[in-house]
Design goal:
Length: about 350
Amino acid sequence: MNYPKRLIEVDLPIKRISAHARREKGIRHGHISTLHIWWARRPLAACRAVILASLWPDPADPACPVDFLNAARQAMQAWTTHEQQILLSPESRRRFDGARKNPALFDDPVELRGALLDFIADFSNWDNSRDSTYLATSRGLTQVAHESLGGVPGTRPLVLDPFAGGGSLPLEALRVGADAFASDLNPIPVLLNKVVLEYIPKFGQRLADEANKWGTWLKQEATKKCAEFYPADPDGAKPIAYLWARTIQCEGPGCGAVIPLMNQTLISRRRGVGVKLIVKDRSIAVDVRTALPVSEFGPGTVRNGKVTCPVCQFMLVAAKKRGYLARKDGGEWLSGGVDIKRGRRRPLEV
């Protein structure tokens, strides 16, 4: 059997998929990223598009199975109705509107390929990821592609991900109608994937209730044990974190100030939160300020490995800094606490 090229080998609407992937970063409700944090998470939009384009053959390839051609033509023609077109993006709607006016348009394999790519681009939109019409179309074509390319009837294609990480690829494989086999050398992503791919589908709300129950218990116990380290303000606000830095002593003539090692003073550019270094009587005080322009926060004390003293401007080279830290192990410099109440910051003493 001559195997045809897959869609991903021919074309992919990368610009449109990328736009949906960028937007997805700001989505929280219902997204897998709200269940657990993973530092190298692949966008679901891109994973969904890549999997479909890898499973579906190219209709314009001479070796494309006739069963898939017929199924794809029928599926795309169903999207030419007015009810279906309102679910499409403006970029895709032009092609499908043309097919509505000329039903023979999708008899052209190149036009049919374009329709499939338009569908993939629109399905990568988070708003369409749980739409029953998109799901039915993608799963139906995935099954036809699998069986027409030699898959055992009644089985589903298998997507393998040996380095699954946060689980984006296996999750999207299940969404589009494939089975998934995921593994990882790190036991943490293995557990995360079991939760997402096995436990949630199996236990549903019961799992959510148990997670809330024990999460609440764990928070209460941790609050009791750590309360002495997070004293409340007079108004009842409690810090949830402290900012700190290692310190070294200035070797400038007659100075001796304790210098906090900070490569920057800005904490949040978007919210205008940062640390203000206040020099007074050869000592360095600190205040955590909020809602200020970014320009209000000066540079840090460390740049290219060199340390500049805010008091006397004496510069310690990198070797001096490393030697000091090796001898005295530096220090801990408390710069500010983050309050629970209103998310505000309060200054702390050095």
